[in-house]
Every structure is written in C-alpha cells, then in structure tokens.
Amino acid sequence: MKSQIKRTFSNFFFEYETPRQVLVRNKRVAVVCRIIQMGVLAYIIGWVFMYEKGYQIVDIAISSIFTKMKGVSFTNISEKERIWDAADYVFPEQGDSSFVVMTNYIATVGQKQDKCPELPDGKNKCTSDAHCDEGKYKRMGNGHMTGRCINDTSTCEIYSWCPVEDDRKIPDPPVLLTAENYTLFIKNSITFRQFNVVRSNLVESVNQSYINTCLYHPKTDPLCPIFRLGDIVERSGFSFSEIARVGGAIGVLIDWDCNLDLSIRHCKPKYEFYGLYGTGKNEDKEEKPSLGYNFRYAKYYVENGVEKRTLMKVFGVRIDIIVHGRAGKFDIIPTLTAIGSGVGIFGVATVVCDMLLLYLVSKRDFYKNMKFKHTEIGEEVKREMGEDSEEGKIV
C-alpha cells in the first residue's frame, strides 16, 4: 500500500501528460477546418481589432453645452407692427442645451379676473343652471363655475381670466415663418477624465474669422458650429412650414468618436439631426391626436389699478442637444484579453471537425480507433496489484 501511494505521488510530480494528436488525411474535413479557422481569424482581425478596436481601453465623455440664437422677425397683425428678437422668441433664457424657439402663437390680450361665459367649443355645454355646479371646476373648463348657465352661448358662467382664450384656430401660415432663417450657435466642450483630454467643437481649424462667415453643411462645412434653424428641421425629416405651425421637437446629436492612438487633432465632432416629435399621420392615415408642441406663458401689467395680462399660447420648435462622447487608447490588458478570446474561438474548428470524423464520415469507426486508445489491465498487472495488497495485509 505504501509503495502504491509513493508511486502515485511520484507520477504526479515527475510525469508530464500531453494530448495525443492524430494526423487525418481527409480533404473535405481539412477544407472545412481551414474555412472555419479563416473565418475566426477574419472575425478577430476585422471585427474585434479593426472595427471594435478591442485593443483599446475606453472612456466616456463628460460634456457641457452653451447655445445662442440669433435672428429677427417682423410682424404686422391688425396694423400693429412689431419686431421679434431672441429675447422674445427663445424659452427659457439662452444658454441651455434644451430650449424652444417660438414660430407661431395665439395671443389673448387684456385678460383680467372676472366672470364670463365658457368658450362655446362644445366641451362645456349647458341647458340649465343645474348643469353648472357652483364652485366646481370641470376638467375641460377654464375656471370655477358660478352656477349660472348663459343662454347666449349655452355654456356655464365661470370665474376666471376673462375673456377666455380661444385657441380653436391656429394661425396658418405661422406668424413667425421667417424663423427658418434664425441661426443657432453651439459651443460644446468635453472631457475624457481617464486620458486627461479636453476638447471643444471649436477645433483647430475653426477660428473667429471662419465662424463669422460659415454656416453648417455636412459636406462643405461639417465643423461649422452655426446652424440655420430651417436646415436643422429639414435634415431631421420634418417640413419646416408644418412644424412651425403646430410645433415639434428636434434632437441634435453631437457625436465624438476619438481614437487617441492618433493625433488629438483627429478628435472631431460629427453632427446628426433627428425628429423626436412633430406632425404627421398614424398608420391608418388619420391625423394624430395632440399634434405638435405648445405651452402658455403670460405677461402681466396693471391698467387703471386693475391687474391684467396678455396670455400667449406658444407653438415652437423644441431643440434638445445631446452629446455622445467615446474615446479609446491602446492598453495591454484589453489586447491580451482579445487575443485570448480569439485563441479560444479557434477551438470551434477542432470540435466541428471531430464531429464530422467521429459521426458523419463513412470511416468513422476507423477514426474512432485512431483517436481513442483503449487499454485493459493485464494478468501481470493484476498480479502485481494483488501482491501489493497482500503486503499491506502482512504489514
């Protein structure tokens, strides 16, 4: 028993095992093996290393956005002339990465808190005072009901800002259709903390003289940070005249995909435009509900000691600027990981070819005998094992 244990430990520490290899001369199986290996090699080189850059460590950017709108519009409504500039048509204040440019509006001038009939739009009908519960508010209403039904309009009398806004008819064409000629200046800065890299969309070739004259175009001026509003809308897939009438939302994507193994001058932004929400029809060719984008704001003033306001229902283009930044740089750890994964995938060729040889080809039994070596314990070995066991008993 002692000698058996000694032999086992000796074999474990002082013997080396290696797989048995069988050279098979079979053209079909060999071709299949080489095709699989070439496919794996193309995947590793083409996809993992060249396209995905699996040899790089990656960092995601932290970014900031500054914006500025410029442009002037002129309107003449009911013989009232007015000039509109950025302070009038940009909401909220300039500088945000998400803002609205007003392109159309409905103004209700001279509202004051008083009693007046509801809007006769068919949503708040009444035939008697019983339909107008005093002190209550209807979801589709504009104020608290006084308990009276006004016969002239067949609507309830309410306590509200009077006269009530009538937004049933949206101006067409849009009041500020010239907004398509407004320009948007975008200043974007990004930081890749892991690589201590800071970049701006005002790259080396973008100087002050260039900014003063350029206008973004994807082919002729792809780095110009000044964009025409009409071009932004059109490139997002919308019609400016339609989206200006009822409003909508546009996404401006600034994409940074930087390979820091090259010169930092090659790290430049790309601009893309997407229609996030706008106008149109559904699959049944019916007009979608709640089209466009709008909101209300009021300008308050005092006239003859009475507080009044001008209520504006604003339709506009909402701009959302989104930054996506990714940078990669060579690192030995992801490189070794990618190589190791590729070497492991090469084993697929061996598994597939073994399946063909052992189960599908006509000489599969011959190949099985060549691949696997079957051994049996002989009489002499049995005798030695028996003697060892007897020795153990005597001891």
UniProtKB/TrEMBL annotation:
Q: Which domain of life is it from?
A: Eukaryota
List membrane-spanning regions: 29-50, 339-361
InterPro entries registered for this protein in UniProt = P2X1_purnocptor (IPR003044), P2X_extracellular_dom_sf (IPR027309), P2X_purnocptor (IPR001429), P2X_receptor (IPR059116), P2X_RECEPTOR_CS (IPR053792)
Residue positions annotated to bind ATP are: K68, M69, K70, T183, N294, F295, R296, K313
Q: Which Pfam families does this entry report, sorted A to Z? A: P2X_receptor (PF00864)
The cysteines joined by S-S bonds are C116-C162, C126-C149, C132-C156, C214-C224, C258-C267
Cellular localisation: Cell membrane; Membrane
* A GO MF term: purinergic nucleotide receptor activity
Q: Which residues are glycosylated?
A: N181
Please report the record's description of how this protein sits within the membrane: Multi-pass membrane protein
Q: Which reaction does it catalyse?
A: Ca(2+)(in) = Ca(2+)(out)
Q: Which UniProt keywords apply?
A: ATP-binding, Cell membrane, Disulfide bond, Glycoprotein, Ion channel, Ion transport, Ligand-gated ion channel, Membrane, Nucleotide-binding, Receptor, Transmembrane, Transmembrane helix, Transport
Kindly give the PANTHER family that the UniProt entry links to this protein: P2X PURINOCEPTOR (PTHR10125), P2X PURINOCEPTOR 1 (PTHR10125:SF9)
Regarding protein family, the annotation reads: Belongs to the P2X receptor family.
Function noted in UniProt? ATP-gated nonselective transmembrane cation channel permeable to potassium, sodium and with relatively high calcium permeability. Furthermore, CTP functions as a weak affinity agonist for P2RX1.
The family database entries (NCBIfam families) matched by this protein are listed as:
P2X (TIGR00863)
Can you state the subunit structure given in the record?
Functional P2XRs are organized as homomeric and heteromeric trimers. Forms heterodimer with P2RX2. Forms heterodimer with P2RX4. Forms heterodimer with P2RX5.
User: What protein is this chain from?
Assistant: P2X purinoceptor
* Species, as recorded: Sinocyclocheilus anshuiensis
- Source lineage: Eukaryota, Metazoa, Chordata, Craniata, Vertebrata
Name the gene behind this protein. Answer: p2rx1
